[in-house]
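Handout for the seminar on molecular recognition.
Each group receives one record of this type.
Step one: identify the two inputs.
Step two: read the structure output and locate the region that could contact phenylalanine.
Step three: write two sentences on what you found, then compare them with the reference statements printed after the record.
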Amino acid sequence: MSSAQEINASLKSLIQEFEEILDQASSLQEVEEARVAFLGRKGRLAGIMSKLPGLDPHDRPQAGRTANQVKSELNRLLEDKKKVLETKSRSVQDTGFDPSLPGRIPDVGSLHPVTRVVQDICNIFVGLGFDIVTGPEVETDFYNFEALNLPPGHPARDMQDTLYITESLVLRTHTSPLQIRTMEKRSPPLAAIAPGKVYRRDSDLTHTPMFHQIEGFLVDTRVSMADLRGTLTAFAQRIFDPGVKIRFRPSFFPFTEPSAEVDISCVMCQGRGRVHDGTACRVCKETGWVEVLGCGMIDPEVFLQVGYDPEEYTGFAFGLGVERVAMLKYGINDLRMFFENDLKFLNQFIQAGHR
Ligand code: PHE
């Protein structure tokens, strides 16, 4: 003799089993077979119900009610499944359209690796307290050159092959104009980064006429080169890896004094100059270092242009090449990849939650 609990349990499990079988069924014929097996005169449900009279009279009414509930649930599942199959066969016959087939999943796009790196870099600096500012790509001679201590005829103007729109309008050759535009509008203390496109008359294996820079600058009382170095170290360790080292090499920019170029230890060979199999590292050309940015302490002449007192304020500035960082970060060895828009290349940057 079965107990009330056993009967209850087998009644409940019937529903799940029936659902699973219906799920598999792809024709009305199979559904009918399932009906006979579960709801037929000699089916599973009837089998369980035949045990009810053997129960303690006390338990019988409850077990009977459960059996009836299960029966109507099974019938409901059966009718639902029939409807699905009937609609399907009618639709396929009438229209040739099968609504039960899985849909076509549309291709999703991905952020361009350069965009992703710009976002990553901006996030790091925002975390360090910098604001994000932007400005025009068509820039006046004043902002692109003159206010940055590059007066007309200054030999350093030739460092950058400028694309001219008119005599006094250029496609900006760097993001440094944003230093001037921002300082004109605000007063110290300030810290900002300016991401954007820049243009130079230059096109070969390692140069494209348009590329991306991120300018960063900070002005306050008593800012020193040590602050610059600390900021750039924190940045390099976050964007690459915590073990990365940076080094400063003396350099020249008209708008910073002193100026430096900054290298990071090569992320391909970990600064060793040679890769795993002992061959020369092509990324750093065996030097163990890769140049990523130019920087320095903002020249007092620049402060005078924007009406800051150079006796009171000091500041640092840096300009970073985004494509260069992206190449190092993702191990891309050909700059042209960024501009060819080859989907096989771009699709590698699809990342969950990162579109
Ligand atoms: N504007 C410089 C360049 O494009 C980089 C730079 C920015 C250097 C800020 C110093 C300070 O080469």
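Reference statements: The beta strands are 131-132, 138-140, 163-164, 169-171, 190-199, 210-220, 246-253, 256-265, 289-298, 314-321. The first strand starts at residue 131 and ends at 132.
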